[in-house]
Every structure is written in structure tokens, then in C-alpha cells.
């Protein structure tokens, strides 16, 4: 179990708590709607900006809640301008990362003379001009992760805590100041399904058409395979997209890469995917990080092809990249073998397959990497860590362009 975290004061985006308080104070539900629509759609920063908002509600909220419990302490735009990483400090000092990936290159403009650098950040020469550009946000659900996947930097951190639903939503609020977020992928730090209650609560607010209004299929929950919650997700949020971080064609290799596979065996996991698809009708995105000599050999392609051939899936291949954590030793596959893997799955097994386009390398836009890098190097040479772990977002969550890369499960 992750260490328990208690926030005080709470975030206004802790919707369940605010709702409960309004009921106790006998404040009519319409004011709850008014509160969130003003905060989210009109970017209100003061309760006085809300028309006809009861004084009783203002007073109570002012005393017990804050508009944000977290803040962005480090922001970096990639050299190509298509990725922004945000390091977000939580109320208790823990840090998580979010990555914004633009569909089209971001235009950069010179930073204003009076633009102050945030804490721990060197003042940028260029700043992004992206608030009107459509983008995907890769979001974190936990601080660290207990799943300990052997190729993942976050996995080396252990679990430090679950994010509250409000902290998850606040990542979206921070990102909306940088870009027009159209897709959200839970592929940052953490295993979302190990923080099920808070993740689903946050997702419900994100897809609520009265507020953020994200299309459910454009919100992707990525899991390394927590079977009970895959099945629960099919009932609770059937229109939200699911990505499975498979990474291996058989039980033996999967156990080497994903230790939780010992509890959630491959045959049972694929059975859960079948049940999920029967209930939801959704295609499932399969994430597969290619590790040279480990899971990318011709026999592995055949095993994977047999495993997936009659299932409605799209496979996203993620060629391994060096990561910042020196203790993680894997080799990247060559471009030719990656191409061979993809073409064989497509042509021999008729499986839709893409190779992940990488984004954010120079901002270390990968699972767990941002925080690892900045804690170690902030103020030194923030450009040196290239990191990738698993990757990214599902094509189903994309709107226009090739899939950007963030990282992931
Ligand atoms: S790959 Fe995902 S599930 Fe595995 S350790 Fe990293 S964050 Fe956790």
C-alpha cells in the first residue's frame, strides 16, 4: 500500500468533498455547477467572479479549500517545439511530471524581458506560444510506482503515494495554460489502476460535458495489467479508451519485464481483455517496448502474432531508448529489425501496428524521467537526459497527427 497522504487545505477540485460540504450547508446543487463551470470554463480565480454565488458558499470555500494545491516548478520546451514538460510540486513537496505533446510544431517566440523564471529554472530564451494549439496531455496518477517494471525509471523509485483526484485534475488545469488539451493519456508516473478510485473520479470530471468536456474516447487509461480493475473499468467508464502495456509475447518474458505478471498471468490477462472488449466494444491499444535480443526476435513476433491475431487491437511498438537511470541496461533495436517486427505483424498476422514516433527526448519526456532528471540536475544541465521507458499514447487518443510520445506503462 502506498503511504497515505493528507492534504490540508484541500483542493477545490476535490469535487466529492465540495459536494458533500454543499449538502451539509444546504447550498443548492446548481451552485456547485456554477462553481466548476466558472473555474474551468471561465478561468475564474475568485469566488466573487461567480454570479449569484451564495456568501455562505464563498466563506466556507475560502476557509477550507484552495484553487490549487500544486504548482508548476519547472517547465521546459523541447528544441523542436512539439513537447513541453511540466514538473509539478504537490502540497507536501512531492513532485510529478506531465508532458504536453502538440500535434503540430509549436511556434516559439522570444521570452519577454520581464519574464521571470520559476523556482529552480533558468530563464528561457524562447517561450511557447501554444495556448491555442491542440495537444495531448500525458498525466501522472501516482508519485513513483510499485510495479517495478525492469525497464522503467519510475519503477526504480518505489511508490511514494497516490495522487488525489484533484491533483490529477490540477495537472490538466496547469496544462491548459499552455495548450488546448484535446486528449489525456494516463501514461506518466504510476499505474493508474492501482489508484482506481481517484483516477476514475478525475476522469469523470474531465469527460463531463458541462466542464472540461473531453470526448471519453480521447481519454486513455494505460495499465500494465491489473485484471480486477480492467474489468471494473469496463463497467464504470466503458467509453474511455484502454491501453495495455504488454511488452512480452509470453509469460516467461513478461515476468522478467513486468514483475506483476506473476500475479496477473498472461492467459488470465488476455481473458480479461476479451471480457473488457465484449462489454465495451472498444478496440484495445497494446503497448510493446522493443528491447533488443529480449523480446524482439523473430520467434517473439510469431508468438505475439498468435496471441493477438483474432483480437481487435492496435499494437504500438516503442523502440527502446537509453534512459537516464544508469542501472537499467537494455539495448535499442535497430531500425531494420523494428521495421521487420512491424511488417510481420501486419502482413503475416493482419494486426494493425504502428511504431511510436518519439517526442520530448530533449525534455526527457518519459515515465518517471522528468522528476528523476530534474531532482538530480535541475540547475545543471537539464538537456542531457534522454530517457525513454515505455511509452506513450494510443493512436485512438490522437486527433490529427502521428502519435506523440510521452511515455509509459
Ligand atoms: S512501466 Fe508503468 S507500471 Fe511499470 S513501473 Fe513504470 S510506471 Fe509503473
Explain what the structure shows.
This protein is an alpha/beta fold and 409 residues long. It folds into two domains: 10-66, no CATH class; 71-104 and 133-373, Aldolase class I (TIM Barrel). Helix content is 30%, strand content 19%. The chain is built from eleven helices and 16 strands. The protein has helices spanning 15-24, 29-41, 55-64, 165-176, 196-207, 227-236, 251-257, 266-280, 298-308, 335-349, 369-377; strands spanning 10-11, 65-66, 71-77, 83-89, 95-102, 108-110, 126-128, 134-138, 142-144, 159-162, 180-186, 219-223, 241-245, 284-290, 313-319, 352-355. Strand 15 (313-319), helix 10 and strand 16 (352-355) form a beta-alpha-beta unit. Helix 4 (165-176) packs across helix 5, helix 6 (227-236) runs parallel beside helix 8 and helix 9 runs parallel beside helix 10. Residues 379-409 have low confidence and may be disordered. Bound molecules: iron/sulfur cluster (SF4). Residues 145, 147-149, 152, 154-155, 189-191, 224, 367, 390, 408-409 line the site of iron/sulfur cluster.
Question: Briefly, what is this?
Answer:
With 409 residues, the chain is of the alpha/beta class. 30% of the residues lie in helices and 19% in strands.
Please supply descriptive tags for the structure shown above.
single chain; 409 residues; alpha/beta; ten-stranded mixed sheet; 11 helices; 19% strand; globular; RNA_MTrfase_RlmN; transferase; cytoplasm; S-adenosyl-L-methionine; iron
